[in-house]
Amino acid sequence: MDIISDIGGSKEDISKCIERYGSVREHNFWFFYNQQRAYAKAFFFKFENDFGIMAMRYNSRLWEIIGDVLAPKGKKLEFFKQFLHYALFTKEDKKLFVCVPETFYNDILSIVEKSGKYKLTNSPIIYNTPVFNVKNWDKSLKGGEFKKLRNVQNRFFKSHNVGIVPSKELDKKKLIEIVLQWRKYRPKTSQTFYLQMYINLIKNHFEGTDMARTIVVNGEPCCITAGWSIPNSNNYYSAIGLCNYKYDGLAEVANIDDLNEIKEKGYGYADFGDSHKSLLQFKKKFKPEYCYQTYWFFIVKK
Q1: With left for phi above 0 and alpha for psi between -120 and 50, is residue 141 left, alpha or beta?
Q2: Continuous segment of H or E residues that includes residue 275
Q3: Among 129, 87, 135, CA closest to 291
Q4: What's the pLDDT score for residue 187?
Q5: Distances from the Cα of 223 to the Cαs of 116, 253, 262, in angstroms?
Q6: What is the CA radius of gyration of the chain?
Q7: Could you read off the pLDDT of 31-61 as tens digits, one per residue?
Q8: Contacts for 79 with CB less than 8 Å, ≥ 6 apart
Q9: 250-269 per-position pLDDT tens digit
Q10: pLDDT value at position 126?
Q11: CA atoms lying within 13 Å on the CB side of residue 93
């Protein structure tokens, strides 16, 4: 196992690993790179045959795995165990934070229970993730089920001077201001986990995204939606959805535009990210085909 600390200098090798073995929404080099902060360092764990794990180490001696293991299904748990042993025994750090879909959670739980060396600190926090069948998304919003959304969209465009432009074309300071305004309305977990990552994304010219769009209302940039293709699939991860909440209907219009563009690009399904209860209710307005669950939890030594 090689441990790579120069993430930028190893971009080509890490990107090739993602291209070969990437399977989940977090498997994106720039998403990984942008997680770095003054108190958090990125590391890439490289195993035999170029398999890998993307991870963060925080100054508090907390590790976080980004996505799941970059390896074929039959190999993932083997490398996860090696990484877990390194983080908690070799480095003697405090704990590992993991966020994975339910199927991989069950596999990890089995490892923890059988090992006799590890335990979960508490029951996992479970989030729901809505997934849209993009082929079935109706850009015209016809029918009774979309009547409220049609009315919101029509009222919004009638009431304001609205433009939709690539985010890369706009002043970075104005885009960062959207992030700071968004932060005021979000739970503390969102403020802590994502604020710097979003700012890094803007500073790095939205590298790694396949789309990044901003709605400009009355001359002012007011939202950012951005995302990327999920590796080895025809699916899309709508990773970023931020707005400054200045206008009624802004969030709805941003999501409609996002789904329209995802459909235009020819994707099959769109993952709209982990959602707490109120956010999930908002996303359900757009009629996802189904939801899946992700498990957030910590592993420590016994």
Answers
A1: left
A2: none
A3: 129
A4: 65
A5: 48, 10, 17
A6: 20
A7: 999 999 999 999 999 998 889 999 999 999 9
A8: 45, 47, 51, 53, 69, 71
A9: 999 999 999 999 999 999 99
A10: 95
A11: 20
